[in-house]
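subagent[fold] <- orchestrator: predict structure for attached chain, return tokens only, no commentary.
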Amino acid sequence: VIFVSIFCCIFCSKQNGETITWLPCYLCCENISIYSWLSSHRSSCLERHQTVMKRHPLETELVTRCGKCSGFLRRWTSYRMKTMEGNNTFICEVCHPATDPCKMYSRFEVINTDINRFNCFNCDYDVCGKCVHKNEERKAWNI
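subagent[fold] -> orchestrator:
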């Protein structure tokens, strides 16, 4: 019975996500409370770190846009202001649209390889390279 309970807890937390209270900002590389991340941190961080943002090229030629604000996406590189554990992975919102931002889903995380993450920092919206390329091909063929 104990084994089943432990297995269920581990399995269910990976399926349903583990609740988090903070996360690492992938721009300033600081630990940010989830409340601040969801309310105000991203806009103030963006203002303070405009020069760092330039290291993540804006992809204006892509048809694929942010699913929240329809803005252009940036190809998010692995460049970071400092080394920090846990801020070089992302979850594609096209592959996994129903994730809760207050939870961690380690089984859905993808490691950023410099060419596979397309991001709108303001909205915290990520799309993987595979989904971007599929969408670009679909648009090119008018499908």
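orchestrator: received. Logging for downstream: Residues 59 and 74 are 5 Å apart (CA to CA). The chain has a mean pLDDT of 87.
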